[in-house]
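The instructor's notes for this session suggest beginning with a concrete chain rather than abstract definitions. Hand out the sequence below and ask the class to guess, before any prediction is shown, which regions might be ordered.
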Amino acid sequence: MLFSGKEVILYCRTAHRSYIAAQILIDAGWEGKLYNMVGGITAWKAAGLPTVKGFGFGS
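After discussion, reveal the predicted structure:
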């Protein structure tokens, strides 16, 4: 795997799809640490934490 052995934070809107993605990576033999952002970006924004628009994939 391209980034296997690295630490990766997975997130989506509500943390459901990122949880599924984490399970897929684990089942495929991921060797690094995986973090699923609880509550997703929705909870992140609700907590008043910073975001950046127009940066990265999908912008």
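Then share the key points. The longest helix spans residues 16-27. The first strand starts at residue 8 and ends at 10.
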